[in-house]
Amino acid sequence: MKKLVVLTGAGISAESGLSTFRDSGGLWEGYDVMQVASIDGWHRNKKLVLEFYNMRRKQSADAKPNQGHIALKELEKDFDVTIITQNVDDLHEKAGSENIIHLHGKLNEAKSSFDPSLIYPVKNNEINIGDKCEKGSQLRPNIVWFGEAVPMMDEAIMHVVIADILVIIGTSLVVYPAAGLLDYAPDDSIKYIIDPNIPELYNPIPNLNFIPEKATTGVEKLLKELKNTY
Ligand code: APR
Fold it and tell me: Which of 172, 181, 192 to mutate to test the pocket of ligand 1 (most atoms within 8 A of CB)?
């Protein structure tokens, strides 16, 4: 089986009703992103950060996977598929995909702010001030914020460097290190970008194809194209 690696961003969840970040003018559901999604923001105002993620967690709990997520699961019949997602929602899981790497963490997990190895499921979709880990420190969302390292990056690179096919869906490719994954794909691998707004690329990428569509229709086109090619 050919190895197919998919990198997804907020755009794949847009048609499930979850808003992307950069399409909304620098504010994310009305919040300043650096206040709610950075380690400095957490130290400045923990209550605001928890409130923002409690709101997003509730939206995500109600959201259903769309045809884009579902078609990626279907690809597992014919390809060895690994999904690397920048999304913190669980729509790839809900669609049934087997191999998912969450580069930026998961909304439905809480983490100790003292010991990052202590991770818990979030109860009732909320983390509040006073919710503590077993060592007595405040719980925080298990999200990788601006200003923090991306622990899953090495594992993601290990998949991309041996990909036969790399598919990128719904990401503006402006947040590093995730955006740099494209540069790790082998020259002879086939690459596709599915996005109604094709992102700006800084390096020449061999064998790159654009599908300038939304995720739902774009992934359908991809499936047809892959069927004709393999
Ligand atoms: N289908 C496919 N792509 C879409 C759709 C859709 N229906 N709607 C919008 N898009 C595209 C936009 O054109 C844009 O290129 O999705 C992309 C969304 O870009 P961003 O909002 O920047 O999201 P993303 O690239 O995932 O952001 C990366 O930044 O905000 C931080 O940590 C957060 O993981 C996030 C990271």
Answer: 172
Q: Express each pLDDT in 142-172 by its tens digit.
A: 999 999 999 999 999 999 999 999 999 999 9
Active site residue 104: yes
| Nearest-angstrom CA–CA distance, 122 and 139 | 10
What digits encode the pLDDT tens for the residues 78-124? 999 999 999 999 999 999 999 999 999 999 999 999 999 999 999 99
CA atoms within 13 A on the CB side of 62: 7
pLDDT score, position 27: 61
Rounded to an integer, what distance in angstroms lies between the CA atom of residue 132 and that of residue 176? Answer: 31
CA of 195 to the centre of ligand 1 (A): 9
Indicate the angle between helix axes 215-229 and 67-74, nearest 10 degrees: 20
d(CA 54, CA 171): 23
Cβ-contact 141, 127 below 8 angstroms: yes
Does the CB atom of residue 15 touch ligand 1 within 6 A?
yes
45 CB near ligand 1 (under 6 Å): no
